[in-house]
Amino acid sequence: QILYLKPPWTLANLLKCYKKHWMAVFGYVVPRSLLSTIECLSKHLYADKPFDSSTVRVLLQESKNLLHAFSCRSDYNGVLPQAYAEVTKLCETLGEVRAALVEQDLSEDIMVLSENAACEKMEATVPSLQSTEEKELHPSFHVAQENRHQEIWSVLEGVWNTMNLYSVELFQKLDPSAVTMAAKATFEEAFLGLQKLLAAVKDIREGIGR
């Protein structure tokens, strides 16, 4: 009777209901600071402009934060873990696409460097060109280094997303009221996954150390 918008709801309607009833209802179920997440989703999903990959990544991560917060209350008859898994897949797909683009850019930079090196070898008879070559190569190497940083960030983001996914699985396994889904990973699989994750983090730490 007091609901701001009556069902059936669209996503836009749900976000409006969240904001309208946040302090009186939803703020008692999940952390109230997540209102910024609702506002972020509402602002970007219905803006009259195309998304770039960075915005999509932010929206997916904010969606995962919201789903994870509600999962601490209930799995909502298995619907919430399924939604979380789908958003996680989208995050992984986006990460793969971004990594592929980075790799493509890196390959193009290497090709440009190779072409420059061939031209510079032909002109190497002029000693005065040596300092010019170093100045021309420097920006390209800088781009390659920047791409490497993005590649490392993509790997760390993948580790973080995996850790979040298994955390949700473990919380649900430890909650006696949670409904077990056939497609959901078993406790043993989750434990083995955490062991693999631990090894991956160890490899990353050793790599950073090197």
TrEMBL record:
Domain of life from the UniProt record: Eukaryota
GO cellular component terms attached to this protein's record: nucleus
PANTHER family registered for this protein in UniProt: TRANSCRIPTIONAL PROTEIN SWT1 (PTHR16161:SF0)
Protein name according to UniProt: SWT1 protein
Species annotation: Pomatorhinus ruficollis
Chain's gene name: Swt1
